[in-house]
Amino acid sequence: MTDAGGQAERGILGALKPYLERESLAAFFLGVSSGFPYSMIGATLTTRLAQDGIDKKTVTAFTLAFLVYNLKFLWAWMVDGVHLPVLGRLGQRVSWMLVAGILAVAAVINLALIDPSADIAATALAAILVGAAGATFDIVIDAYRIETLKPYQLGTGSGMSQYGWRIGSAGAGALALYVASRNGWSMAYLSCAVFALPAVLTAFWLGEPARHRDAIARTGFGQALRAVAGPFAEFFRRKGALLVLLFILLHKIGDTLANLTFRLLFDDLGFSNDEIAIYDVGIGFWAYIIGIFIGGVAYSKLGLKRSVLIALVLMGISNLSFAMLAAAGHSNVGMAGAIGFENAASGFGGVVVVAYFSALCDLRFTAAQYALISAGASIVGRFVTGTTAGGLIESIGYVNFYLLTTVLALPGIVLFWWMSRVGLIDAAMGSAGGGVDRDAETSA
Length: 444
What we know:
Low-confidence stretches: 4-9, 436-444
Order of helices and strands: HHHHHHHHHHHHHHHHHHHHHHH
Shape: globular
Strand content: under 5%
CATH architecture: Up-down Bundle
Oligomer: single chain
């Protein structure tokens, strides 16, 4: 009995140990700061605009501000190669983390001071600036996380990063709703700026990442040009790189299209701010946490390829739950079920898909390559949402809209399955992966 109890205790401690390593804890705090700018121009801004009486087409058009995130690969090379004067003494990644954090705070404060009902154009510009600052913050955070984590920690670190991201986005969203109901939206946005601190403080705590590698020299025009083109040239020289990029572009269309319209559905179904905070933020948060835990277990037991395929299927199916909620109308049980399933599926997918995308990076070009990968992951869905989502909802209704988003998930599922079958997943892996999937599948 004692031996069995001791073995169980050691088993629990052994399972928790990877999550308590300082690199994994760092990934958590980095994720907290990564999530908050996204929340400020995502669900939070959607709710703010809807409550100010802005029409649906204009509200969904604001999701185009997220396209700035999809363009971040255009300047991500600077984070890899531009040495900041004076602050550069802190280290390449640490100095950029400080500057990017300050930019994110300044952009959110700017958005806080603008009244959408008085000047919608200024609001749009402010949202774009938050997107640009948040994207730059993400570039630094992602590079720092990947270079800090060892290959065997990619799954655990991705999970901890997703935990942090959810806490940052949900925490900022819940805080904004709470403060807005009592002190107005300007004060709500100002109060959320504190969420930039965890990443900056973490960078000062850990210092420069151990796996950071200097890329191409940046003296002279020719070398500078190679610094810009080098990360992309290296990626596209890999076998199957174009198909991997096609998967990145396709796999999240339906999920992105659906996610950026949820708050419109909640508003039209008559849910109050407090109900949204309880169900969307509260239940959604815990469901996401559970999904992340299951995703981490699946990654370690099933390997990368099988766990990613399961995640793609779950994320596609999750959109059906919102079609059911739209059909049911104002139902607290229905909202809890839809939010719970969608967030659990997103948490599961967040761990394994982020681990896969991280493993694709070459450590010489971490910032630029992960920026390209993460930008491509949602660009199509965001563009479609910003240009057609509001019109689609008005013309075919919410039920048919969410059924359509489910169908749009199928191409990504089929493509990933086929790439796994023919060996292209392993062939296109980067140096950050270190053969992690083959090792995982051997031990499973």
